[in-house]
Design a protein that fits this description.
Blueprint (H helix, E strand, L loop, with lengths): L4 E5 L7 E4 L8 E4 L2 E4 L1 E4 L4 E6 L5 H13 L23 H4 L9 E5 L4 E5 L4 E3 L11 E4 L11 H7 L6 H10 L9 H14 L1 E6 L2 E6 L4 E3 L5 H14 L8 E5 L10 H13 L3 E5 L3 H10 L6 E9 L8 H10 L3 E7 L9 H15 L1
Parallel strand pairs: 6-15, 6-16, 10-14, 14-15
Antiparallel strand pairs: 1-5, 1-7, 2-4, 3-4, 7-8, 8-9, 11-12, 12-13, 16-17
Helix pairs in contact: 5-6, 5-7, 7-8
Length: 366
């Protein structure tokens, strides 16, 4: 089962996009009098979905919304895991702080697999329309940008007792990495584990809440002493070894290229492509043109990887909505738009390609 789409209305950077009502509402639209507001809508492929764009366009927000929805697909959730969207951003947030508009506008996000729908209304502060979603049991793993296994000693015990300055995704990744290893490894995963093991020169073990890299020569290296890029590979090895990235699961990874030596981009891209071939749907947010391009040039077919470009801009509004336009001009706010394609070159307003081209222009001018 794969996540097919997300709709977001008036949450975080995703604001209401007005237009004149010329007929019935379509999916992702809300009718208010003679006006219709379009929710931000993004459709996904079954394979690897790569979210790109400048800072502040909502890439991480989308990943966390999808992750929260998958957590709500379980009838019985691990008590050590959080489930509400707010928890995946901060343990101090209130719903009102996440809303784009402070007026009476409806604010929600909706995730669908094409048949079933999960909707979280931040306006009403409750989950709506998830009766057919609950029980789908969509296994998922979220890898945050911040490396967490170096802080694992006593982490989960302290989190149970105290209010910790970490969001739910950071807590969950420690929980997932701390799970016991599976007895048997699927044949499709063995080659991936071998590749990652060769890169970190060993395997990952946990003793007394502390993670180590057990080197092939027998040395046991504290996880915090490894280079952060190698820790990412070690975490990925542990998640696969724990049986969390198998057919039917969803992997959400925020900036896999962060603190990673560019020479390792092909390795990580290759691992993600193999996981996708094994039936894992993948969502990554990246600022790296090179990393995204490796996914494109190394895929076996174009449908395996889809690129989603998020960017800020302004829209043409009808005369009847001039007052709303003037309001946007006063606040200086720009709406977030998107376009999707199977080739990076087909994306409009592609900021990571613009930055890459600007660098090349400077090189040529030397």
């Amino acid at each position: 089962m794969a996540i097919k789409s997300i709709d977001i209305l008036n949450v975080m950077v995703f604001q209401r996009q007005w237009r004149k009502n010329n007929g019935d509402c379509k999916i992702g639209e809300v009718k208010t009098g003679d006006k219709i507001s379009d929710a931000f809508h993004l459709g996904f492929c079954n394979g690897i979905n790569v979210l790109i764009g400048e800072n502040g366009v909502g890439k991480t927000t989308i990943l966390k919304m999808i992750y929260a929805a998958t957590q709500w697909s379980f009838e019985k959730t691990n008590p050590g895991k959080t489930k509400r969207l707010l928890d995946f951003f901060s343990n101090n947030l209130k719903n009102s702080e996440m809303l784009k508009n402070t007026e009476s506008d409806y604010c929600y996000y909706k995730v669908s697999d094409g048949t079933h729908v999960f909707e979280d209304s931040l306006t009403h502060e409750k989950i709506l329309g998830y009766e057919d979603w609950l029980g789908l049991n969509i296994p998922s793993v979220y890898i945050p940008t911040t490396e967490m296994l170096s802080h694992s000693k006593g982490f989960l015990a302290m989190n149970q007792k105290y209010t910790m300055p970490f969001d739910g995704t950071q807590i969950d990744i420690v929980v997932n990495a701390s799970l016991p290893e599976t007895r048997e490894i699927p044949e499709s995963c063995k080659a991936i584990l071998d590749e990652l093991s060769a890169a970190i020169d060993g395997t990952v073990i946990q003793e007394d809440d502390v993670f180590y890299v057990l080197k092939k020569d027998g040395r046991k290296i504290d996880f915090s002493l490894e280079a952060e890029g190698l820790r990412k590979l070690g975490l990925l090895w542990k998640l696969i070894r724990n049986g969390l990235l198998e057919k039917g699961s969803v992997l959400l990874w925020d900036e896999p290229e962060a603190n990673l030596n560019p020479e390792l981009y092909p390795l990580v891209a290759g691992v993600l492509l193999k996981l996708q071939e094994n039936g894992v749907q993948i969502f990554v947010a990246t600022h790296s043109y090179n990393f995204a391009k490796y996914l494109e040039i190394r895929r076996k077919n174009k449908e395996q990887v889809m690129f989603h470009n998020l960017y800020k801009g302004t829209s043409e509004l009808s005369d009847s909505l001039k007052d709303m336009s003037e309001k946007n001009e006063e606040t200086g706010e720009e709406e977030v738009y998107s376009n999707s394609a199977y080739r990076m070159e087909d994306l409009e307003a592609n900021h990571i390609m613009m930055a890459d081209n600007s660098l090349l222009d400077e090189v040529y001018r030397l």
